[in-house]
Amino acid sequence: TKAMRYLGEIQRTCTLKSGLYGCGRRAVRMLNDLYRQERQGQIAGAYSALEKNHCGDMANLPSFLDVLSRNLYILERCEEPMPEGQIRLRLEKKLAGVSGIQAVLEFFANLKEGSEEKTSTFLMTRLKEKVAVYLEKEEEKRKAAAARRARQERQHPPEEPPPSRTAAAGFGGGGGGGRRKPGKGRDKGGKGR
Predict the structure, then answer these.
(1) Residue 70 pLDDT more than 90?
(2) What is the DSSP letter of 21?
(3) Pick from 4, 115, 169, 180: CA 20 to 30 A from residue 131's CA?
(4) What gap in Å lies between CA 92 and CA 165, rounded to an integer?
(5) Which residues contact 80 (CB under 8 A, 6 or more apart)?
(6) Whole-angstrom distance, CA of residue 100 vs CA of residue 126
């Protein structure tokens, strides 16, 4: 884990041979540097994930919003939140081609600047509501299709193929007797009866 890696780094630097005077300050300085490096790595990873995050249709919108929310949270926790205007611009740009949410985007674009509803949080909430409605309709479609298939199977059961004459007579085809009885067939010498 990271804590063990940091501990190993500090133990390697602060030894009896190097003298313990000032090791506490040195350890704090090292931890601060390591924390800063990790923080910068998290910030870079969040921006990279936000840049790669795309949405082409309504089916991909839930994962798009999840990645967006998660990485905005990471940036906020790292004390480098993305500016509100940049979030809104990113949302409008990345979701411009998605059919089914155009009304939400148009409504949002027509809001007056400075309105309490013209925030990325408001837009994301409206988009999540739209996704919930979409997923509900998709579930209804799946259930209706399953009901149609079940109804068709009840009305028209699959026909069984007619039994072949050889199977009915006990020759081949897996029918007629199964395994041989002991003592029947070839005897131990390998020759017939």
Answers:
(1) yes
(2) T
(3) 115
(4) 70
(5) 43
(6) 12
